[in-house]
């Protein structure tokens, strides 16, 4: 499933983007026993991708995923638009959001 969101960060600052994952009935998705990863790159066709630090904070039943960038990372990237992908996995179940 694809979604669109605008994420902004000032260069040199630490930033946490909190995503809320919900079930079809809009209730929080229980992310117990799930893992998550996320990456971003300049364009969809770029071969160079950068990883977010990703955490599923407790309690995992609340459905939150945090994408984290530190100030050193944000200071090294040129300003502009980037695309990012988030993948949440539980064994063979994969929830994907390309944003």
How would you describe the overall organization of this protein?
It is a single chain. With 99 residues, the chain is mainly β. The chain has one domain. The chain is built from one helix and seven strands, in the order E-E-E-E-E-H-E-E. The strands form two sheets. Strands 3-2-6-7 form a four-stranded antiparallel beta sheet, with no helix packed on it. The longest helix is centred in the last third of the chain and has 6 residues. The chain is globular and about 40 Å long.
Query: Mean pLDDT across all residues, rounded?
Result: 87
Morphology: globular
Category by helix and strand content: mainly beta
Radius of gyration based on Cα positions: 14 Å
List how many beta strands DSSP finds: 7
Tally of helical runs: 1
The rounded distance between the terminal residues' Cα atoms is 9 Å
Helix content: under 10%
The tally of structural domains comes to 1
Going across the biggest sheet, name each strand in turn.
Answer: 3-2-6-7
| Low-confidence residue ranges | none
What is the string of helix and strand elements?
A: EEEEEHEE
Question: β content, as a range?
Answer: 35-45%
State the major sheet: 4 strands, antiparallel
